[in-house]
Amino acid sequence: MSIKIVDVTEEDTITCNVCNCTFDTNEITTDDFYFAWDNIVSTDCCRSCSEKLSKWKYIVWVGGVDDYYTTYERAKKHYDEWVAKGYDDVIIEEIGK
After folding, report:
1. How does 13-26 read in b/e, with b if 16+ C-beta sit within 10 Å?
2. Who has greater pLDDT, 25 or 43?
3. 2 exposure class (CB count in 10 Å sphere: 0-12, 13-18, 19+)
4. Within a 10 A sphere around the Cβ of 96, how many other Cβ atoms?
5. 54-90, pLDDT tens digit by residue?
6. DSSP 57-76
7. Is the full-model pTM beyond 0.70?
8. Any bridge partners for residue 24, and if so which?
9. For residue 29, what is the DSSP state?
């Protein structure tokens, strides 16, 4: 679930550390901007830049909960494990395609 950036920072604007674009925190959400402390990217950046920087290539979603993977093989292994446990709401998403 995305939330407005203004709800996680006290700043009025936020700047991507890669492309240097500035965004109004009232107009963007956590789907539009990534923070390094999320451990998805190495520096605070916008969605466009994050797709270029992210070490994560796949997400396995289990009932709306996300887990990130660097290889398809590992993502598929964990996907299969969740399905074997009886979960039917399991999805593999490729990031940045």
Report:
1. ebebebeeeeeebe
2. 25
3. exposed
4. 12
5. 777 889 999 988 888 889 999 999 999 999 999 999 9
6. -EEEEETTEEEEESSHHHHH
7. no
8. 13
9. B
- As to burial, measured by CB atoms within 10 angstroms (0-12 exposed, 13-18 middle, 19+ buried), residue 75 is buried
Any idea where the domains of the chain sit in the sequence?
5-53, 58-94
State the sign of the Cα–Cα–Cα–Cα dihedral 40, 42, 46, 50: negative
Determine the length of the chain: 97
Q: Exposure pattern of 50-62 as b/e (b: 16+ CB <10 Å)?
A: beeebebbbbbeb
- CA 27 – CA 55 distance, rounded (Å): 27
d(CA 39, CA 34): 9
Dihedral (Cα; 35, 36, 39, 40), 10-degree rounding: 60
Q: What is the pLDDT of residues 4-21, one digit of tens each?
A: 999 988 999 999 998 999
